[in-house]
Amino acid sequence: MEVLARKCQIRLRGLRAPKIGTEYGIEARDELAKMVDGKCLTIVVYNLDDEKRCVGDVYSIDNSLKDILLRKGDELPWRWEAD
């Protein structure tokens, strides 16, 4: 296992979310922050995107955060979309 000792913005692999500065961007970010606050997470990074964000999968226990967000999509005024 490799542990990164640096701060990195994470972009969930295979998920499109509202960007900050667009409609619902702040709300989407805050909803995600509430979901992971205080949880032990496993992050598997695959690469960096053009904006130098770590692109990867995030897991809480055995649950994929991406899958949770996609299931939760109908409850929220914005859409999390698989890409």
Automatic annotation (TrEMBL):
Domain TNase-like as annotated: residue spans: 9-73
InterPro entries per record: SNase_OB-fold_sf (IPR035437), Staphylococal_nuclease_OB-fold (IPR016071)
Upper classification of the organism: Eukaryota, Viridiplantae, Streptophyta, Embryophyta, Tracheophyta
GO MF annotation list: endonuclease activity; hydrolase activity
Entry-linked Gene3D superfamilies: 2.40.50.90
Keyword tags: Endonuclease, Hydrolase, Nuclease
UniProt-recorded name of the protein: Staphylococcal nuclease (SNase-like), SNase-like, superfamily
Highest taxon listed in the record's lineage: Eukaryota
